[in-house]
Amino acid sequence: MKSLCVYCGSNTGNREEYAQAARNLGRLLVTNGIGLVYGGAGRGLMGVIADEVLAAGGRVQGIIPKVLLDKEIAHPRLDELHVVNSMHERKSMMAELSDGFVALPGGFGTLEEIVEMLTWAQLGIHAKPCGLLNVGGYFDGLLAFFDHAAGELFVKPAHRSMLLVDADAEGLLTKFRQYTAPCTGKWME
Questions:
Q1: What pLDDT does 189 receive?
Q2: Which domains are delineated in the chain?
Q3: Where does residue 131 rank: exposed (0-12), middle (13-18), buried (19+ CB within 10 A)?
């Protein structure tokens, strides 16, 4: 694994443990020689993880659409900042540059991005691991919904198992290393 895409909030949330988890993940990436690919902002959890990776001597690539360049206040010190024309182009480039996808706590955008990558994995568009760093149980409600969807037969058990979850960054990274995609696009069977 050479680079990991991290989706997370452009705010820090109301618990210090969210920022601490972003810092821990950032240090872990550098320790393991893994570069960070993310949304390019310098604030919120996005800025926290980018700052940590940079401070530890790691590589950071940000991808930001022109429309958000000023709104998100692009990080000024990244190794690379790709400015793209749309959110779709942003997500596509993030997927192309990454060997896996992790969501830290965040809002609608974070959720939309990780679920899209999980859907792409379900459809066989990629076979890269997708996971949630479930800091302080932040994603418990979402996980309950996914279990409900599987119970109602809208999500197959093999597809539900594709989403890796851990409260600890090191545990999640270990699961990423051991990951083998359970399907190759046979999502209707």
A1: 46
A2: 3-175 (3.40.50.450)
A3: buried
